[in-house]
Known about the structure:
Strands 12-11-7-10-9-8-15 form a seven-stranded mixed sheet. Strands 3-2-1-4-5-6 form a six-stranded parallel sheet, sandwiched between helices. The protein is globular, with a radius of gyration of 20 Å. It is built from nine helices and 15 strands. β9 (198-207) and β10 (212-218) form a beta hairpin. It is α/β, with parallel strands linked by helices. α5 (100-113) packs antiparallel against α9. The protein has helices at residues 12-22, 37-47, 55-59, 76-85, 100-113, 128-137, 160-179, 261-282, 290-309; strands spanning 3-8, 27-33, 50-52, 66-69, 90-92, 118-120, 143-151, 183-192, 198-207, 212-218, 225-232, 235-238, 247-249, 252-254, 313-314. The structure holds (2R,3S,4s,5R,6S)-2,3,4,5,6-pentahydroxycyclohexanone (ISE). (2R,3S,4s,5R,6S)-2,3,4,5,6-pentahydroxycyclohexanone binds next to α7.
Amino acid sequence: MVLRIGLIGAGGMGSFHARTLAELPGVAITVVADAVPAAAARLAGELRAEASTDSASVAGSTELDGVVIASPDDTHAALALTALEAGLPVLCEKPLATSVADGRRVVEHEVQAGRRLLQLGFMREYDFAHMQVREQLAELGPIHHVRCVHMNANGFERSTELLVGQSIVHDLHTIRFLTGRDITAVTASATRRPSGAIRHLLVVVWLDDHAHATIEFDDAGYAYEVHVEVVAEHGSAMTGRPVGPEVRRAGTIRRPVGTDWFSRFAGAYRIQDASWIDSVRSGQATGPTAWDGLVALVAVEAIVKSLASGGPVSVPVLERPVLYDP
Ligand code: ISE
């Protein structure tokens, strides 16, 4: 049976998902929605899909087997709710929402329905380098420190809320999925550009078992890089740095690292998307959950508060509904 998938958001991320999914056997992107008619028409034309500017009706369409939400962040929660109400499996880009209150509504909906239908796009869980680190942890004993390093080359400035909600949200999830622990407090410090936008951000994160973590984020502008190192009782593990070939020329050694997340995580996105399709077929949602998205948002809000106050902010540990038991 060919799965009919709707794609919402025809920007860079949405186009990547659409092309990735369309290459999978037994998958057809049947409709592409975007608020910008030309963007919807361009991608829909390429994929021989229908074009729409009505994202909400695509999210709730009974003619689909699943929907991918890759529209602007502040539309995620409402579209996800529409899809859940229609009983549609959803692959929703991160963040789950732009506020804890909206994220909570999505979780509450799934809990009331008693069924997981949403997979959140925390694609690092499908990254080979991160998976290898996770596999090593069992023999390393209790974790003392998780060090996340994250460098962007966006070429544009973002508000503090956007930067923390779009970028740091990944590192918060990395800390949780590698340690399996809850975040209890954060403190953050930033250096800023003359405009006031964050250039470099340092976050100290405390976990409920007294381990700690740090997130070093640089809106560097010259390279994209993500890596993580875990320091544990009997040893440490860190992601290799996946980079391009080593080139010797004119008395130098160069290694390309790329300037965006597609150069670093294309493989992870492909595995994530294929795994989501498997879950649509089996009827059993897998991978990062709406709960993971909500818990990350709670920490995002605490980091934003810490940047405003200059001091540590405690992060309430929410009680996990049984639906999200690992
Ligand atoms: C972007 O939205 C992503 O999701 C990337 O994975 C992340 O590295 C980047 O910082 C975000 O802006």
